[in-house]
Design goal:
The protein has 211 residues and is of the alpha+beta class. 27% of the residues lie in helices and 29% in strands.
Length: 211
């Protein structure tokens, strides 16, 4: 799929409707995996949900790429893991989109004039109680990144064609309170993309690329 075809299809399939499950603990995001869905329902009863927003920055190169970050090694949550730019939605953020744009600028210096937001992907729930609403966006080349080392150790690009190839979508499993739940991993060279980041990329594949 060419860069133009990807962005055209994304614009046709995505909207900016905010799902109720972002803030409503009774609206459980559906993952398609029974074990994960049961886990999210249990967590919603036990602890407050944590609304968050991330940006999926697809850079409009001849061969499009996705900009990812590696979280700082000293962080308390998800230290060293591969992530999208993003974080919790603050009270001052007018929308989840605003939160994603703010976090992208704060973390890696990705300036808003280079970003063309397209729409929200499906809501994604995690085992830490986060409800993540991803924004898919076209990014114009020519930007300069400024890495905020208090949050991020590195930022790098991965070809969209690699991430959207189901051959590279490894399915792993682990136990949660006696239930088996599945998660995706997409190793790329020395980068181990897994967990929520790989799960969200899998959702992007299903929404935009799958027949």
């Amino acid at each position: 799929m060419s860069s133009a075809e990807f962005f055209d299809r994304a614009r046709a399939r995505l909207r900016f409707d905010v799902p109720a499950g972002l803030t409503d603990p009774d609206a459980i995001p559906e993952s398609g995996d029974q074990g994960t869905d049961r886990m999210l329902a249990i967590l919603a009863r036990e602890q407050p949900i944590r609304p968050a927003a991330v940006l999926i920055p697809v850079i409009d190169r001849p061969q499009p790429t996705v900009l990812l970050t590696q979280r700082a090694a000293h962080l308390n949550d998800h230290a060293g893991q591969i992530s999208f730019p993003g974080g919790k939605i603050d009270a001052a953020d007018a929308t989840p989109l605003d939160a994603a744009l703010r976090e992208a600028e704060e973390e890696v210096g990705l300036a808003r004039p280079f970003i063309d937001p397209i729409g929200y992907l499906d809501l994604y729930g995690t085992s830490f109680g986060f409800r993540i609403l991803p924004t898919v966006a076209r990014v114009e080349p020519g930007f300069e990144l400024r890495i905020n080392t208090s949050e991020v150790d590195d930022a790098f690009e991965v070809p969209l064609s690699f991430l959207m190839n189901p051959v590279n979508h490894q399915l792993h499993s682990k136990e949660f309170r006696g239930m088996e739940r599945y998660y995706y991993a997409m190793p790329y060279g020395e980068r181990y993309i897994w967990g929520a980041t790989a799960g969200i990329l899998r959702v992007l594949y299903q929404r935009i690329f799958a027949p």
